[in-house]
Amino acid sequence: MRISQEKKNKISEQILSLLFENSPRSLFISQISKEIARDEEFVKKLLLDLSKKGLVDQIKKNPQGTTYKKRARWKLSNKSYEAYKKIQGK
What we know:
This protein has a 3-stranded antiparallel beta sheet with strand order 1-3-2. It is mainly α. The chain has helices at 5-21, 29-36, 40-52, 78-89, and strands at residues 27-28, 56-59, 73-76. The termini are far apart. The chain has one domain (21-89): Winged helix-like DNA-binding domain superfamily/Winged helix DNA-binding domain (Arc Repressor Mutant, subunit A, Orthogonal Bundle). The longest helix has 17 residues, at 5-21. The protein is built from 4 helices and 3 strands; from the N terminus they run αβααββα.
């Protein structure tokens, strides 16, 4: 089954909104996919696309500085956070 680009964009907007609501906390893909009721692999693909556009940042280390082996956390980039904050402020 194929998903149109328009629907992918709307789901990406949901992801960005969720990350903004939880900012400055970062979330794992499993938490994001549970919140927006989507498959983890699909969410990962969208997050990687958003990362290439500079909208989200991938965190590969835990708070103690140890590198994750198989997972990562995600948060809004500073640029995206400021843009969302301006929109919310209006």
